[in-house]
């Protein structure tokens, strides 16, 4: 098992942020270093302990997708090969190797681009209340985890650590981003979801939903950023045994969510996850990586 890394400490690099999972450092005027730690969050709360090696798996999966989608969309990924990193980064190899991506610096857009192909999570909860998801009306009679007639773009606000993301309508996203950027983000997110969904299906995985983040480069071009299509940012379900009308087994952190629900988690106060929840979560991340990258 890999050693647990909850925080990184690189004194000669400027720490810009510690997110729910990533530590972000400034490398130079044009580049950042994204470091995936082993922190794990659920319901927007970072747990007290983590999942050893999770950050390495997240990095491996993200790198695969950036390279696989590279000709389809502009993105910020430069390299995860540690030998290609600047000297200021390589000196921290013991901490950073295997869990770091050198990326282009962008101005990040303040909306998360969520795409749903199935009715699950907060989308299912919203549908049960009033038949809508993020203000979008859906046909009556849909069941939990049912495949939607077509993928839905259902954006949310971007919360700081400790706060909660808020679902918003596409119109509200346009109001935040401006109509031009809003439409571009929507189009790119739907295209990326559909492309990844079809690939995942070929590996026996249903991509139920996922979230993307986008930024703008120095030319104003909307560019894919952050991590992509990992078990932290997506719901992956095994295609075998899929049946709507119930929760699905998953390749993501559903074990964590289920445990927290079982203890009536207040969705505010970090807790320590039991060893068996940590172990089973890691196994699912490992299984997802093996299937997707095979």
Condensed summary:
With 294 residues, this protein is of the alpha+beta class. It has eight helices and 16 strands.
Please explain how this structure is put together.
The protein has 294 residues and is of the alpha+beta class. The chain folds into two domains: 92 residues, Phosphorylase Kinase, domain 1 (2-Layer Sandwich); 156 residues, ATP-grasp fold, B domain (D-amino Acid Aminotransferase, Chain A, domain 1), CATH 3.30.470.20. It contains eight helices and 16 strands. The strands form four sheets. Strands 8, 9, 12, 13, 14, 15 and 16 form a seven-stranded antiparallel beta sheet that branches. A five-stranded antiparallel beta sheet has the order 1-2-3-7-6. A two-stranded antiparallel sheet has the order 4-5. Helix 1 packs parallel to helix 8, helix 5 packs across helix 6 and helix 7 packs antiparallel against helix 8. The model has no long low-confidence stretch (mean pLDDT 93).
The top-level CATH class of the largest domain is Alpha Beta
Question: Which runs of at least 5 residues are low in confidence (pLDDT < 50)?
Answer: none
Strand tally, please? Answer: 16
Query: What form results from the Cα inertia axes?
Result: globular
> In terms of structural class, how would the helical and strand content be classed?
alpha+beta
Query: Which strand-content bin applies to the residues?
Result: 15-25%
Mean pLDDT: 93
Can you count the helices? 8
Q: Give the CATH H-level superfamily of the largest domain.
A: ATP-grasp fold, B domain
* CATH-assigned fold name of the largest domain: D-amino Acid Aminotransferase, Chain A, domain 1
Structural domains: how many: 2
CATH architecture classification name of the largest domain: 2-Layer Sandwich
């Amino acid at each position: 098992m890999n050693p647990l890394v909850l925080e990184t400490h690189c004194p000669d690099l400027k720490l810009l942020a510690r997110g729910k999972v990533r530590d972000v450092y400034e490398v130079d005027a044009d580049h950042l270093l994204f470091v995936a730690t082993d922190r794990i969050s659920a319901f927007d709360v970072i747990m007290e302990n983590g999942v050893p090696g999770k950050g390495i798996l997240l990095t491996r999966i993200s790198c695969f997708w950036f390279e696989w989608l590279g000709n389809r969309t502009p993105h910020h990924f430069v390299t995860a090969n540690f030998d290609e990193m600047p000297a200021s980064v390589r000196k921290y190899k013991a901490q950073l190797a295997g869990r770091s991506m050198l990326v282009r610096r962008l101005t990040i857009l303040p909306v998360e681009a969520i795409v749903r192909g199935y009715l699950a999570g907060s989308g299912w909860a919203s549908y049960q209340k009033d038949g809508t998801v993020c203000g979008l009306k859906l046909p009556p009679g849909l069941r939990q985890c049912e495949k939607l007639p077509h993928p839905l773009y259902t954006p949310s606000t971007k919360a700081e650590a400790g706060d909660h993301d808020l679902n918003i309508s596409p119109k509200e996203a346009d109001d935040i981003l401006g109509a031009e950027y809003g439409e571009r983000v929507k189009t790119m997110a739907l295209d990326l979801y559909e492309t990844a969904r079809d690939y995942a299906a070929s590996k026996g995985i249903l991509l139920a939903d996922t979230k993307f983040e986008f930024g703008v480069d120095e030319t104003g071009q909307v560019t894919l950023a952050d991590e992509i299509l990992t078990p932290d940012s997506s719901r992956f379900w095994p295609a075998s045994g899929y049946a709507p009308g119930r929760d699905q087994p998953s390749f993501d952190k559903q074990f964590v969510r289920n445990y927290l629900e079982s203890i009536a988690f207040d969705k505010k106060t970090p807790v320590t996850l039991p060893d068996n929840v940590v172990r089973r979560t890691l196994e699912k991340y490992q299984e997802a990586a093996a299937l997707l990258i095979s």
